[in-house]
Amino acid sequence: MNLPDPLLIDLRKVQGFDESSFQKAHDEPVTTSVRLHPIKRSGTDISGDAIPWSNGGIYLAQRPVFTLDPAFHGGAYYVQEASSMFLEHVWNSTVPQTEGLRVLDLCAAPGGKSTLIASLLTNDSLLISNEVIRARATILEENIVRWGYTNNWVTCNDPRDFTKLGGYFDVIVIDAPCSGSGLFRKDQNALRDWTEANVDLCSARQQRILADVWPALKENGLIIYATCSFSPQEDEDILDWIANEYKTETVPVSIRDEWGIVETRSPKHKMHGYRFFPGKAKGEGFFISAIRKKESASTLFLRRAKAADMSKIKQQAGHLLANDNLQYIQPDKESYNAIAAAHEADWQLLQKLFYFRRAGLPLGAPSAKDWIPAHDVALSIDANLSLPAIDVTREQALKFLKREDMNLDSAARGWQIIKFNNLGLGWIKSLQNRANNHLPKNWRIRMEIPET
Ligand SMILES: C[S@@+](CC[C@H](N)C(=O)[O-])C[C@H]1O[C@@H](n2cnc3c(N)ncnc32)[C@H](O)[C@@H]1O
């Protein structure tokens, strides 16, 4: 592969850069990897070699057609680049507690980092996954619904909207939009579109994004900053920029030599960063650093107003949930969601300030004589395990996912979850002589399914 000269010239200044192994690796194929869901993983038999910095990350020997695997649609695993999973090691090394945290994943689509973070938090922690681009927020929401965590909310806002949440977050993850050189092996367009001018533009945007959310971080809170760019202008230079602007320090992370990850230091303030160079580490290009805020931040006091009486809704929809300590909210006129009791005051505040795609677990809506369950319930890890369900074969599951007739011969009537290997995929409603498929239209598999 013909790598851009200006990039190579910049990289020669970076510690640990080995030009010949880097060039050679860019003529080799990429490895596919997935991260298994901590709870739903029993629904898949996908296997491979363990990724050493991630619990649940595996390298696959080949790339299967994920669209044709119902376990993928049920959220048994997430297809993610191995280097990105290093976030888990950084998180475990730098975030002191997992309980009661407020976490923002600011640039979250399509959801790789968010689904990873959701797996690391306890139920009383809150993860806000934000994506500014609307079409991408839709994909993010789908992936988060599939992963099934009630405490993972989705917003669609500009970073500057978070400025007003003074000192609210314990951790802010910024997987910044970047020039994408780390993905040259995966994406030919990234190579074709790469220019020095774009690197400068990305670097300026990264500074703007950091400045926008800085006030929203608590004193001693962490920003985990990452890019998939090799350019020092978007990596070490950003660490120096942030150290020039604010009182900060980076938190070093211990790494094993055999992982092939390179620890670098920013030229001016000697801030710690971790680089993945193809040819050294088994993964694509990636940079990550954990930055601690060492200055005071304003404190936002949350007031919990008396919530509306939801006892009638609890009677109608409570059967959908495995535990009854969740609270009910009404995000719009027609539908109801469940959230952890610990997050009621957060909802009361945040709903006034942000465009929500999802807060908590959507439960659905009452109809004249029925409760119409939301699709999200079928995929939720908080769903009642004894809800009526039909176990289907792989072929039937794929038909369901294509919204085609499955030829079921079940006598049961009413709302039922379609399950494959115990993984919920969605709802059908069985009537006297037919079953209606309630998979949302935009979730439908569009590819042709080959005959087996
Ligand atoms: C590297 S991707 C994030 C990948 C994601 N964190 C994951 O792990 O799946 C960067 C994201 O930033 C979003 N983005 C683009 N411009 C932005 C801006 N000005 N502010 C915030 N986010 C932006 C992009 O739409 C994109 O989804």
Automatic annotation (TrEMBL):
Alphabetical keyword list: Cytoplasm, Methyltransferase, RNA-binding, S-adenosyl-L-methionine, Transferase
SUPFAM superfamilies: S-adenosyl-L-methionine-dependent methyltransferases
Any Gene Ontology biological process: RNA methylation
InterPro entries named in the record: Methyltr_RsmF_N, MeTrfase_RsmB-F_NOP2_cat, MeTrfase_RsmB-F_NOP2_dom, Nol1_Nop2_Fmu_2, RCMT, SAM-dependent_MTases_sf
PROSITE patterns: SAM_MT_RSMB_NOP
Domain SAM-dependent MTase RsmB/NOP-type: residue ranges: 1-294
Signal peptide interval: none
Active site (UniProt): C228 (nucleophile)
MF annotations from Gene Ontology: RNA binding; RNA methyltransferase activity
Amino-acid positions noted as binding S-adenosyl-L-methionine in the UniProt annotation, renumbered to this chain: C107, A108, A109, P110, G111, G112, K113, E131, D158, D175
Coiled coil feature spans: none
PANTHER family found in the cross-reference section: 28S RRNA (CYTOSINE(4447)-C(5))-METHYLTRANSFERASE-RELATED, NOP2 YEAST -RELATED NOL1/NOP2/FMU SUN DOMAIN-CONTAINING
Family: Belongs to the class I-like SAM-binding methyltransferase superfamily. RsmB/NOP family.
Protein name as catalogued: RNA methyltransferase
